[in-house]
Amino acid sequence: MAIFDPLERESTPSIIAGKLRTAIGRGQIAPGSQLVETELAKELGVSRGPLREAMQRLTQEGLLISIRNRGLFVITMTDAEVRDMYVARTAVERAASELILQRGGKDVAARLLQTVQSMKQAADRGDLDAMSEADMEYHSTLVAAAASPRLTRMHNTLLTETRMCLTALERRYPDPHARVGEHQAIAEALAAGDPDLVGRLLITHMDDALDRLTSGGTPEAATA
Questions:
Q1: How far are the Cα atoms of 52, 202, 223 from residue 205, in angstroms, in the given order?
Q2: Dihedral of alpha carbons 17, 23, 29, 32, sign
Q3: Which of 21, 68, 104, 149 has its CA 20 to 30 A from that of 126?
């Protein structure tokens, strides 16, 4: 009887897809940009075969769009797409929270509160980039803690789309500490084992961010 499971190694296309996903999310590859295969292969130092597979993955995820006779392009996020993305994010994060609470949420809440502390420190010094990174880490940690590979895969794509939206905004935070409080409240509700409160807080948190990201809201305090 085998004691250990075989080690899983990340494939080259998966690594490339991750690098492209990060670059798209951070705005290093801008919305609407065309991905030129020869240029990317040279820049990444890879052959075109795994690069094509990686781009196909991002096309399936919805981050790239193939236009007949023109090539592959990074998507642009309309208000309708942003709303749909937040509907999906809310569903994924609520499902993750329910799974976490089935096992008890105190350990996860403790990790989330550590990230909240990083957010607070960033807010105190007015470092909005660091605050955004901590914000993304918070939501990634939440979903990863559910130990559902499918929820994590879906969430990774949704967070990339979230980053795309945030990068496009002029980041003006009149009171970034208010956002810190929202994240802290969700973590504390997890620690208390209150699924109804967690659900309500997640919905409120997502609705507020959506209002600020779409044309009907004010972008100055937008975050994840």
A1: 37, 5, 10
A2: positive
A3: 21
Task: Give the C-alpha separation, 222 to 132, whole Å.
Answer: 10
pTM exceeds cut of 0.90: no
Distance (Å, whole) CA 39 – CA 30: 16
Q: pLDDT of 96-121, one tens digit each?
A: 999 999 999 999 999 999 999 999 99
Record the tokens describing residue 80, joined without a space.
């309708």
CB contact at 8 A, 191 and 201: no
Classify each residue of 94-112 as buried b or exposed e, where b means 16 or more C-beta atoms within 10 Å of its C-beta.
bbbbebbbeeebeebbebb
**Helix or strand or coil: residue 71?**
strand
Report helix, strand or coil for 7.
coil
Helix (H, G, I), strand (E, B) or coil at 58: helix
